[in-house]
Amino acid sequence: MHFIPFNKPFIAGNELAYIKQSVDSGKISGDGLFTKKCHDFFAKRYGFGNALLTTSCTDALEMAAILVDVKPGDEVIMPSYTFVSSANAFVLRGAKVILADSRLDHPGIDEDKLEALITPRAKVIVVVHYAGVACNMDKIMALANKHNLIVVEDAAQCIDSFYTGADGVSKPLGSIGHLAAFSFHETKNVISGEGGMLVVNDNRFLGRAEIIREKGTNRSQFFRGEIDKYEWVDIGSSYLPTDIVAAFLYAQLENMDAIQTRRKAIWHRYMQTLLPLQVQGKIKLPYIPEYATNNGHIFYVLCADMDTRTGLIDYMKHNSVYAAFHYVSLHKSQFFMANNTVPNLPECDKYSDCLLRLPLFYDLTDEEIERVCDLVMGYYQGV
Ligand SMILES: *Cc1c(COP(=O)(O)O)cnc(C)c1O
User: Fold this and answer.
1) What is the DSSP track for 159-217?
2) Angle, vertex CA 294, rays to CA 291 and CA 296, nearest 5
3) What is the pLDDT of residues 210-229, one digit of tens each?
4) Predicted TM-score (pTM) of this structure
5) Percent of residues, the chain, with pLDDT higher than 90
6) Which helix (H) or strand (E) holds 356?
7) Ligand 1 centroid, distance to 357 Cα (angstroms)
8) What are 154-185's pLDDT values in tens digits?
9) Domain 15-253 identical in fold to domain 256-382
10) 227 Cα–ligand 1 center, Å
């Protein structure tokens, strides 16, 4: 039996041709021809009028942390069940991370447990739309407005996913918080190897965002001809990607519909085939709230406990299929535990211990999906 990996980066076809075009253009540093094409794509398709490509989502989050001006001792509330970058970006600026529990029915932050965590030092809420499934943004934004907090969407996983609130309007994830950070890492739906994007939805942050991204200089204004020299005006770093990366990304963006259609089809096939196991009470399948969409980023099952999950991972590996658990919740991480009192977050513990992601990538065939599902079902016949 051939090996089925957990992920395989999808190559759309025009990546190398566009890279060549970028090289031939004579300008391969940041904000070149293809960066502009990508920015235009996001503006047109999602209304992200103020999107800035970055070198990674981690860097976009670091930019967000600088922009919101968190100071040592300021508190930033975020889910514990997330990737380290959601936290590190703020910790790098001296902020204190306050970790929140996940929902009972979804790994996303439990909106109803948030208000109890807000102290006078609170400054930011970071939401993570896990697996591209929206958090309840009506509740989050209302809470943020009430307590004068800034909302940063860690939108790493949620390209082409949407939220429909009480106003009935479908909004792309990444357009609702004050700032949002996307990832184009090779494990995401649309990729450039490493890569990311900051979306600025609150115009207050716009001018400073391009300065921070350009090493703390007003070089972007200079290149637009708005000023006659550029100089050091603020703190900053080098957060803009080479145009070669943007060229790769643009080839992917042109294939957004094909990528999304296939990924969602794979997701639904898993869902349908594994439904009987949920009916029998052996596993739990993903839940998508009515206000959220599914973008086919992750398909996961929830096992009853960690031992069952470890058994399933081993059984699949033994049969040449690689399935992957996900986060060690931040509140159980070495770094957090060494520096903080550890909160009790039972739902995060559940997802850390029991969640298992099945292979999901564009080139996964229907036969391979069947093989993965047969293994999951075969395992549960044996336990
Ligand atoms: C992938 C991911 C990141 C990091 O993205 P990079 O582009 O690799 O920096 C951050 N947060 C979440 C939730 C992610 O899934």
Assistant:
1) TT-EEE-TT--EEETTSSSSEEEEE--TTSSS--SS-EEEEE-SGGGHHHHHHHHBTTB
2) 170
3) 999 999 999 999 999 999 99
4) 0.97
5) 99
6) strand 355-357
7) 16
8) 999 999 999 999 999 999 999 999 999 999 99
9) no
10) 35
Q: Which residue's CA is the nearest one to ligand 1's atom 8?
A: 185
* 123/71 Cα distance (integer angstroms): 9
Ordered by start, the domain boundaries in the chain are: 15-253, 256-382
Ligand 1, atom 1, residue with closest C-alpha: 156
**Fold assignment, 15-253:** Aspartate Aminotransferase; domain 2 (3.40.640)
Q: What is the pLDDT of residues 270-296, one digit of tens each?
A: 999 999 999 999 999 999 999 999 999
3-class DSSP state for residue 96? Answer: strand
The class that CATH gives domain 256-382 is alpha beta
Residues near ligand 1 with C-beta < 6 Å?
Answer: 56-58, 82-83, 85-86, 128, 154, 156-157, 183, 185, 196
Instruction: Answer yes or no: are the C-beta atoms of 368 and 4 closer than 8 Å.
Output: yes
